[in-house]
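Researcher: I'd like a candidate sequence for this fold, 86 residues long. If you have to choose between options at a position, lean toward the conservative one.
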């Protein structure tokens, strides 16, 4: 789904529906609440093998110091990209 498609869907909702908390359904019995909508200020990189290990290259270099290997990370959110945060 693109943000354009999301906008079109949101525009189709009435005011009462728009007051509901935004959620993402993971499975039929579990959902995640969307806490905010953001726009990336810096490129965010994620460790290819460990998704919880993410941040800007500067943050990752500082945190990982000698263990940091840029080849272990891939660009996950490019600066300026809109995204929803849970």
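Model: Candidate sequence:
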């Amino acid at each position: 789904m693109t943000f354009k498609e999301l906008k079109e869907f949101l525009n189709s909702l009435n005011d009462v529906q728009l007051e509901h908390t935004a959620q993402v359904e993971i499975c039929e019995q579990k959902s995640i609440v969307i806490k905010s909508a953001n726009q990336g200020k810096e490129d965010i990189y994620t460790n290819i093998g460990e998704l919880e290990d993410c941040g800007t290259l500067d943050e990752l270099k500082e945190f990982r110091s000698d263990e940091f290997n840029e080849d272990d990370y891939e660009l996950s959110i490019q600066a300026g990209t809109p995204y929803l945060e849970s």
